[in-house]
Amino acid sequence: MINNVTYSCLIFISLSCTRNDHIRSYQLTKINKAKITAQEQFHKDKSAELIWEKPDSWMPSEGSSMRLASFSIPYSVGAGDLSVIKLGGTGGGIESNVNRWRRQLDLESLSLVQIEKNIIVGEGMLGTYNILQIINKKIDSAFLCAIIPIENYTIFVKLSLKPVGITEIEDDFITFCSSLTIPN
């Protein structure tokens, strides 16, 4: 029995090999994906929970299943990663979220009073929201964040980038956050 298997394998191998030294090439059909045009002013996310306006240079990217949207945002020294998520209620509140982000940047926690001193208030389609910059120059990393409370949930927008990128992207970030709205 073993001899039959060995013999069969040797025959298969010898028939599979060729004496020609040529390269085989294959063509596969390309699956066309819908392209996002530069003319696009509004984007509707896959769950149709939010609508927003974004700069043409922001490219949709892959993110976790928690994200409503993800974008790769180019700036002078690289690309930032922007995420939009929605959590029920207050999503844990300003203090716990800001301190979680600070820990991600190897920074110490702050009290709510200290955090509130650094909040910039924005006004958008969904109402008043908070904007924060969290920077750790020692590790050359920063977050630009927005916390947008809505009736029964909170939207969190977080942009991870190098500190130098904040001044380059901040206006577009604020415009994006201000444009967020819920479809009719």
Summarize this structure briefly.
The protein has 184 residues and is α+β, with helices and mostly antiparallel strands. It has helices at residues 2-16, 93-104, 112-117, 163-179, and strands at residues 42-44, 51-53, 59-60, 67-75, 78-88, 120-124, 127-136, 141-149, 153-161.
Overall description:
- It is built from 4 helices and 9 strands; from the N terminus they run αβββββααββββα.
- The chain starts with a helix and ends in a 5-residue tail after the last helix.
- It is 27% helix and 33% strand.
- It has a single domain, classed as Jelly Rolls, CATH 2.60.120.
- The longest helix is centred in the last third of the chain and has 17 residues, at 163-179.
- By secondary structure, the chain is α+β, with helices and mostly antiparallel strands.
- A hairpin with a 6-residue loop joins strand 1 (42-44) and strand 2.
Order of helices and strands: HEEEEEHHEEEEH
Helix content: 25-40%
Strand order of the largest sheet: 3-4-5-9-8-7-6
Give the structural class.
alpha+beta
Largest sheet: 7 strands, antiparallel
- How many H/I helical runs? 4
How many DSSP-defined strands? Answer: 9
Estimate the mean pLDDT confidence. 81
The CATH C-level class name: Mainly Beta
Radius of gyration equals 25 Å
Q: Uncertain spans, ≥5 residues at pLDDT below 50?
A: 23-47
CATH architecture: Sandwich
Shape estimate: extended
> What is the CATH topology assignment?
Jelly Rolls
Strand content: 25-35%
What is the number of domains? 1
Seen as an oligomer or otherwise, the chain set is single chain
